[in-house]
Every structure is written in C-alpha cells, then in structure tokens.
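Notebook entry, cofactor series.
This is the third protein in the set we're modelling with a bound small molecule. For this one the ligand is S-adenosylmethionine. I'm keeping the input format identical across the series so the outputs can be compared line by line later. Sequence and SMILES below, as received.
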Amino acid sequence: MVAPVLKDDTFRHLRDFIHEKSGIYIPDTKKYLLENRLLRRLEEKKLKSYEDYLYLIKYSGNGDEIAGLFDVVTTNETYFFREPRQFDVFIGHVVPSIVSAGARGIRVWSAACSTGEEPYTIAILFNEHRETRLLRKEIIGSDISKGVLEAAKRSVYSSYAVRNVPEEYLKKYFRNSGNVYSLDPKIKTMVKFLNINLVDEKQVRTLRNLDVVFCRNVLIYFDDKNKRKAVSLIYDSLKPKGYLFIGMSESLHTVTRAFRPISINKTVVYQKV
Ligand SMILES: C[S@@+](CC[C@H](N)C(=O)[O-])C[C@H]1O[C@@H](n2cnc3c(N)ncnc32)[C@H](O)[C@@H]1O
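Returned structure with ligand:
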C-alpha cells in the first residue's frame, strides 16, 4: 500500500485546528513531524488519508479523537530533577518564605507535568525536607495529554528518566528491576493528576489559591497570544505573592509584566505582585 502524503493545504488545516485547541503552533518547517506522528493515528483508525483524519477530528465522532491527537502532537520530554537549580531555589528559598509568612499548608501545581517526573520530584523533596512535615502539602500534576497522565499514574520509569536522581534517593524511593524503576507508593500517593489544557479558560479556572506553579518547557510550543493567555490564567490561579517557575531557557520578558522576577543563585523565579 502507498503511504499517505500530507498535502500542504491539509497540513495548514490540521495545524490551525491543533493551534486553536491546544495553543501549540507547528511551523511549516515541522510539517514532516506532524506527518510522521499522525501516520500512527491514521493506521490505528484504519484511515487512508490525512484528509479523512481531518474530517474525523473536525466533523465526526464525539470528540474522542481529539485526545488521541493531543497524545501524538505533544512533545513529552522530561526527567526527574530536571534543572536542579530551580528545585534548590524552590525547597531552599521559596518554601521557607511561604512557611515564614505563616502558612499552614502549601499547594503546588506542575502545570504540564508529562509523565509525572516533575511533580514526583517535588514530592521527594517534601519528603526529604523534614521542616515541611507540619505543613499540609498538596501537589497537583496536570497535562493536556491523557496518555502521559496514564503513564504518570503507573509511575514506572526507565533508567533514562531517573539518570539525574541522586544515588541515595534512587535507592530510597525506587524499586529497581532490570532497566525499570518503580516509584515508592508513598511518593506516588502525594500527587493528584488532572487533565488540564492550559489554554482552556474553563479548565484552568478550576484551580485556585496555589502557592507555587511550575510551568516549565511548555510555553515554548505556544505562539505569543497563547503564551499570554496561559500565563494570565496561571497568574489568576496563584495566591497573592505566589511563585511561578518557567523553564531555565524561557523568559516572561515579552509575555507579561504582571510578575516580579526574583533572581536567587542565578535562577529566576517569578512572583505574583
Ligand atoms: C516538554 S514537556 C515538559 C514536562 C515538564 N514540565 C518538564 O519541564 O520536564 C511539555 C508538556 O506540555 C504538555 N502540553 C502541551 N500543550 C499543552 C497545553 N495546551 N496544556 C497543557 N499541557 C500541554 C505536553 O503534553 C507535554 O507533556
């Protein structure tokens, strides 16, 4: 059978649809990526062309395929203790400043958590830092892709995902068999997972009164308009003086002035003013 070809016109329709629903903008130069990734969906759905797929997501079915589409168009690269300087600032400065302001609890949201490594890293840090033991701790991990959330709930990882975990934590919090690392159930139960699209106002508005949001390495996939939308919704979800971490290589400079950047040990954390 001849492999289907993604025509330019169909690509643009699909690109616009994905952009409208998820904020993710796929430039012309990444057409091949969409073509390759969607081929899997076409095969699974036994469709003969990309036009048939476009028709399916736009006009037929009950919207179920949109979840499948999100699963394949998202880039889910992540690992435990990614960008560790930010976690040092979180546990060494941000959490103590929340505690010293008299908080009895702390609510943290990992806003595009992929397969769970980010919120579970936060859970491990809470468990290690005994000074947080009297705090009520709530950790929420969310993502637009249901597929990665299923993997997050299974919490079984490859050696690649745990390569940055300090040796003593690896021994303490993972059961290793062969190349597979299963997370300690105690850490697992500390995180609640939700399916949230960061550019869907109704969904994001279900989260309120957060102390800290980690929104790392996701805004890079959005165009400026959707960056502004997502960041403004996150702003509203935070308590006054709440904190936001974005990726180390990202900046809010052209996105918003609503946060105050604070630099600690060469790491920037944004505070709601
Ligand atoms: C590269 S991963 C980053 C994971 C983690 N935050 C980290 O820094 O290691 C980006 C994640 O953003 C998610 N994502 C993309 N668009 C999204 C949207 N509109 N709403 C919520 N999550 C989204 C993807 O599914 C993917 O899991």
